[in-house]
Amino acid sequence: xxxxxxxxxxxxxxxxxxxxxxxxPPYDIINAEQHEALIRKDQHNLVRLELPAFDGCEDMAPxxxxxxxxxxxxxxxxxxxxxxxxLYIYEMIFSALGSTHSVKGFxxxxxxxxxxxxxxxxxxxxxxxxxxxxxxxMKATGCNFSQIYSLYMDGDxxxxxxxxxxxxxxxDSEFTxxxxxxxxxxxxxxxxxxSAIAAKMSDKKLYIADGHHRYETALNYQKYVQDNLDxxxxxxxxxxxxxxxxxxxxVVFPTHRIVRDLSGFDxxxxxxxxxxxxxxxxxxxxxxxxxxxxxxxxxxxKAFVLFTGDNNYTLLELNDxxxxxxxxxxxxxxxxxLDVSILHTLILERIFGIDKENMAHQINLTYTRSADEALAAxxxxxxxxxxxxxxxxxxxxxxxxxxGEKMPQKSTYFYPKLTTGLVMNKIF
Length: 428
Hints:
Number of helices: 16
Helix content: 25-40%
Distance between the termini: 26 Å
Radius of gyration: 23 Å
Largest sheet: 9 strands, mixed
């Protein structure tokens, strides 16, 4: 099953400065303006390595630039590898859904396994463009700058007890980011603790929560190294942040859908077609629409809010979950009963004619975690309508992955995102 390994992490030195100015969000949620702001904050911010600026062409210059910057920072002792192999216990403390949460796990290397082995399980489809970008960066730098976020089952809490016991002292790194999320990192080099955790993890399956593109890229990079280089370094492993799936602090936000550029969009016609499968409650305000959505979630029912502008919120509540078997009969029960599967199958595909390829290329569909952003797109006449969704449950993610299937893209948004820059893995 899962094979974990301690490693000599690459970390910022005291010479680099304030760690809070050096870390950055994950590459896939940074826009051009944020990229510039991070570099203004500190010239050594990791965004210069994790997301080298480029104009979208196929030229490798930005990746080569990142490799040169990495070499320079190593020479200047801005970054340095730890002398001892460690596991890195990582905790995030944050506020969400009206209360304070804590997620504590550990960062280690994990032996790469093909998905077919059933040891490491994905839950979401991926986009090829992101994988190409990550692969080019790995080839140029020989480094993993960020971790894959994965979950494991720890019913008796024995793994958590070990990592919690090993992280009672002051952390080696700590800062609070602009979203008021506090990040703490402890470096654990005690061989007895490392071996105990590795033994506990040896019978576990890992469920990728966030980082599917990076995992598939690591598999591609492993093959590239095997075919082209004499030494493998740690290319047979990939760094992961591993968190107990039963952790009460886990928070998953929904990813809402914005529908745009449809010709002849007709609200009344959409409602009429939806009535075949849904109870339709039109002309609600936002408060009533969101209350209906929350009520359905708490009662285990499937519902969406359709927003068409002018303060018109329509609650759509599925009448019979069994109808999904008619349209995707070969899918597992877990996949059929996902909110996103229902929305995509019954509404986006059947009523709007937005097929899977269209969704993958985001021709008529945009994804956002922000309900306000989705509503503003409609009110600003940049979109025909928006669908507000409930979050996917962690148990649903587990069940879909365990069935060997993948959810549609952008089905989940684990909050908060792991910061990038506390610890990295130099492959060579």
